[in-house]
Amino acid sequence: MAKEIYTKYKMAKYLRKEALPTALCPGCGGGTVLNAFANAIDQLKIDPKDLVVVSGIGCSAWIASPYFLADTLHTTHGRAIAFATGVKVGLPDKKVVVISGDGDLAGIGGNHLIHAARRNIDITVILVNNFIYGMTGGQVAPTTPFGAKTTTTPYRNIEHPLNIAEVVAEAGASYVARWTTAHVYQLIESIKKALTVKGFSLVEVISQCPVQFGRRNKMKEPAEMLRWFLKNSIPISKAKKMSPEELEGKFVIGEFVNRQRPEFTEELNKLIDEVAEHFGLGDE
Amino acid sequence: MRYPFPVGKSDFIQGDEAIARAAILAGCRFYAGYPITPASEIFEAMALYMPLVDGVSIQMEDELASIAAIIGASWVGAKAMTATSGPGFSLMMENLGYAIMTETPIVVVDVQRSGPSTGQPTLAAQGDVMQAIWGTHGDHSLIVLTPATVQEAFDMTIRAFNLAEKYRTPVILLTDAEVGHMRERVNIPNPEDIELVYRKLPANEEEAKYPFGDIHGDLIPPMPIFGKGYRTYVTGLTHDEKGRPKTVDAEIHHKLIERIVNKIEKNKKDIIDYETFELDDAEVAIVSYGIVARSAIRAVKMLRGEGIKAGLLKLNVVWPFDFEMIEKIAEQVHAIYVPEMNLGQLYHLVKEGANGKARVELIPKIGGEVHTPQEIVKAVKRCEKCI
Fold first, then answer.
1. Which one in A190, B61, B93, B301 has a CA-CA gap of 20 to 30 Å to A37?
2. Max intra-chain CA distance, chain A
3. Which of the four CATH numbers 3.40.50.1970, 3.40.50.970, 3.40.50.720, 3.40.50.300 does domain B9-193 have?
4. By C-alpha distance, which of B360, B203, B372 is closest to B287?
5. Is the dihedral of CA B36, B37, B40, B42 positive or negative?
6. Cα distance between residue B320 and residue A36, in whole Å
7. Predicted complex ipTM
8. Which helix or strand (DSSP H or E) is residue B144 part of?
9. How close does chain B come to A12, measured CA to CA in Å?
10. CA-nearest residue of chain A to B32?
11. Is A86 in contact with B2 (Cβ distance < 8 A)?
12. Tens-place pLDDT, residues A102-149
């Protein structure tokens, strides 16, 4: 049965078949993100051999590793972007993509996210934001909505969530967008743009974790969570006209920035040429 | 290839500077760092030299990122290095384990300062010995080199890269603020006279399928680096020969870790490096490493002058450790003294090696100053009298 699905699924050629079926829970948004990413790669006709995927630790990291069939660096918790920096500098002509979760990239690894955006290094980050630490059993994340219940905030969450897309845009990224798993076509288009733009790009994907988040917050069914996303999604153009109070509990979706800024590896190579010219040792 | 510093002649430079120059001559073309006393001079030299040799030196946001970046760079084929001191070294421990588990050749320099915590940032210590060997969690092995002079800092940096490439492993150059900041005359050889080792790459697509398989029977798999179309899978999870995660299979875990440990242990003879001084007829031995070994040589001479047949074993590599050699020495001498700039670290390894066949005495010193030869002599004489 499973085998049949994989032969019928057009994107299966991008996956490590021996790793399937995925370890993702039924109803998880991770599969949607994997599907969107594979479609973006397919539509852009990127040869997976020209792609390096890097991930950290957690459920969302599994989207890249082991499932996506490319050179893959499955790293330590929070550090994926730092590893990817070394990869990108060494392989400036390849696409380097980090796929990981909110806890991994914006929690423990938040510093690397901000500084990679500031450097504007040409790495694409697909950040799957499911508001929770899923793999470890549903603990509060820096993205968990105010008031939500988790295993480490069993009464209610008294902290406010980080607005990842805004922070990364502010830090200097070339491209930032946010969608939900209920906006698959827009998501694919944004991933394509992120892969094409020069500089740091972030696509934040609000994703459902019915098992660890929904179950404890009156949304046991994946569909309930998707309806919650749709009902509360506000296009960024509309959000600009709304007050912070009106935006409380809403998901602002769309493109936050799409701009040209000097890119890190290009600047680095420019510097090397410049230094060679002025202080050059020349060929012997 | 020309270099931004004199080669084929000697120069009067700091230890930190020597490490940077040696790294470049060893083929290092990727450096990532974060400022920290007393290792910053290595970074500054790399920032200055790297663009001139078509290399890269970047400042990361912290030491976690520095070691992560060099591991990433190593997987695209670069010889890569970072340098730090105690506080930064502590931050690197998790990713050091990642480099061990993924068999990534990197060089990490720890210019030791006095700890714990912020401690004495400008003063030397040897307090990171056990951390260098055992600091990262889980069963593992790696290589730790301990230079005593600026020349050795230079030579051992080149050796660190060669060992890292040969054994596909992280290598720690464990030096200290004294060696790092001291200026001495260093012979910098002609680049063509420097023997360089490069990691084994897969000979074909078939070999590339086993990034973690002992396909040549030498315990060291060829490294299918990124960007060549191999679609290599690298993970810090327990993995099989193809790199696929296998996290609940005891046999696979055992096989992987045993190989990672054995590729160092079974090649001990090739890796271990030491020097002896007046040890052949010695009745008491001093076992020393790093900066303290310089005082120990002088102490041996002074003790001999006073009729005590002392000898020195100077370790240039503190891991892997030659327990058998220590036992042999213990059979010859009646006491072994271990002067260290800590409260006893290598001492425990020496004691284990001696296996009860000789008395093993620690000569500890902390606070930032190197033992004087007189202090070592005094400590030896005090103990020799008490038996």
1. B61
2. 72
3. 3.40.50.970
4. B360
5. negative
6. 48
7. 0.95
8. strand B143-145
9. 15
10. A86
11. no
12. 999 999 999 999 999 999 999 999 999 999 999 999 999 999 999 999
